[in-house]
Amino acid sequence: AIIGAGLSVGIGFGLQELVANFISGILLLFEQSIRPGDIVEVEGRMGTVEKLRIRSTTVRTFDNVEVIIPNQQLLTSSVTTYTHTNRRIRIRMSIGASYDADPQEVRDALMTACSRHGLVLKEPAPLVFFVGYGASSIDFEIMVWVEDISTMYQTRSDLFFMIWREFEKRQIEIPYPQRDLHLRSGVPWNDLVDALRPGRDDADADAVDQRDVSPVKANEKPDEPVNPLKKLDEKRPLS
Question: Counting beta carbons within 10 angstroms of the beta carbon of residue 143, is it exposed (0 to 12), middle (13 to 18) or buried (19 or more)?
Answer without folding.
Answer: middle
